[in-house]
Design a protein that fits this description.
alpha/beta
Length: 453
């Protein structure tokens, strides 16, 4: 059951996110006890990534209230999660965490892998929250219980990066960092690790995760950095393949450092650059474009002709199933949006989770309802009913691909129209993008930062 659910949710994640990448897998030990520590920006999506994409079996520490939820609780038990009793949860008894720690230590002592979010809760803050000490206490206690000659417990930090965590069909990265050993400290049976050792290991975990995550002092900084990175990473010649998300994350991390240094040293230059980026983005929005459309070499006659031919062939092939898929799935799609907005109540760290859970429930119900309708209409024709239900998910996926392509085509048509009929406006935007990029590079050099697209 666990393997089947893991494969199913991996597929669901691949559909919800247009692009998922995993890097640093070579840092994950294939055998021996491992404690994964992760940042926690996106609700139940975060553990889903590790459960579905980790190269080995993992058990999670999860807050106890999740085990009381009808569907989520069943999933927690199926994936052998370990409940954590937090003081802020209604009816919680933190004294029960002794059993939690013992269960986690038994998994590690048996050479297994567990995962924990040291921040304690999912959040929307632009930087990591202060860490709880549970991860360090579990690791040190388990290390003390291991016998001589056994493999040491290794902590593997893992950073989660979302380009737009609440947005359907966005991009996400799971990035493993360098593992490090948990020091073995002699403890009496049942004794807790010393406070100094717990504090030191917690600080080391914090440093490791800080090197894998995107953080800033304020949300506005992350928003400006993301916009600057989009402009900076766009070139006149479209790339053969998108840059790896790990590279995108590293560029943004350098931009955050540049943001802070520029504000501190030259606030006037910072304000001028921010205003320039804002103005440029406003002009793009008014034209219905994004920086990726401003690649002049894309619009040569040969490339335009090839793109048109490819689009016509794709549209001719996908149009019938796309229309059928849209007709069947659009009501559920809209309901998912309403439900997610209502339940999450503006909490972006929960929005994607609610969307995913609602979609996982509503789309199969839609297929079942259509199957019942076909059964009645065909007077019990099993082949027609089963065939229709089997085709519906494929039609829905085809519809998704089709309308994403339509959206990209519309953007390209707008850019081409601007180039053909208002070339001066198109080239002015291109020139401004180049100028902003050149200014970012110059500032990076002055600040002593190496910035590469």
């Amino acid at each position: 059951m666990r393997s089947a659910l893991r494969s199913f949710f991996a597929l669901v994640l691949r559909i919800f996110f247009r692009r998922i990448e995993v890097s640093g897998v070579e840092h994950v030990p294939s055998v021996g006890p491992v404690l994964f520590v992760l940042n926690h920006p996106n609700g139940l999506i975060d553990p889903g990534f590790l459960l579905c994409l980790a190269p080995r079996r993992v058990s999670f520490l999860a807050k106890a209230p999740l085990f009381r939820m009808p569907l989520v609780g069943w999933l927690c038990r199926t994936f052998q999660a370990i409940p954590v009793h937090r003081r802020q949860d209604a009816g919680a008894d933190p004294a029960q965490n002794r059993e939690t720690f013992e269960a986690a230590r038994r998994v590690l002592a048996g050479g297994g892998a567990i995962a924990i979010f040291p921040e304690g809760t999912s959040h929307n803050d632009p930087q990591l929250r202060p860490f709880k000490t549970g991860a360090a206490r579990i690791a040190l206690g388990a290390a003390a219980a291991l016998g001589a000659g056994t493999r040491p417990i290794r902590i593997v930090p893992a950073g989660l990066y979302y380009r737009a965590k609440q947005t359907f069909r966005s991009a996400a990265l799971l990035h493993y960092g360098e593992p490090f050993d948990v020091p073995a400290i002699a403890l009496a049976p049942g004794a807790e690790p010393p406070v100094e050792a717990v504090r030191a290991l917690t600080e080391r975990i914090g440093q490791a995760l800080a090197e894998l995550t995107l953080q800033a002092e304020r949300v506005e900084a992350l928003a400006l950095v993301a916009r600057a990175q989009r402009i900076f990473s766009t070139a006149d010649e479209p790339p053969a393949a998108p840059a790896p998300l790990a590279q995108e994350l590293e560029v943004q991390r350098r931009f955050v450092l540049g943001y802070r240094l520029l504000r501190e040293r030259w606030p006037d230059r910072f304000t001028a650059l921010q205003a320039r980026i804002d103005r440029y983005e406003s002009e793009l929005t008014a034209a219905g474009l994004d920086p990726r459309h401003l690649t002049p070499r894309t619009y040569t006659f040969a490339r335009v002709l090839r793109y048109v031919v490819q689009s016509v062939l794709v549209f001719a092939l996908l149009l019938p199933p796309a229309l059928a898929g849209a007709l069947v799935h659009y009501p559920a799609y809209r309901i998912v949006g309403y439900v997610a907005t209502g339940i999450s109540k503006g909490d972006e760290s929960a929005l994607a989770t609610v969307k995913l859970l609602a979609a996982t429930l509503l789309f199969p119900l839609t297929w079942a309802a259509v199957g019942v309708a076909v059964w009645i209409w065909t007077k019990g024709n099993v082949v027609a009913t089963v065939g229709t239900v089997a085709v519906l998910p494929v039609a829905g996926l085809g519809s998704l691909v089709f309308f994403e392509r339509v959206d990209r085509l519309i953007g390209r048509i707008r850019a081409l129209g601007l180039l053909l009929f208002r070339k001066w406006a198109f080239m002015r935007l291109v020139a401004e993008r180049r100028a902003i990029r050149a200014e970012i590079i110059a500032l990076g050099k002055e600040l002593g930062l190496v910035v590469e697209a």
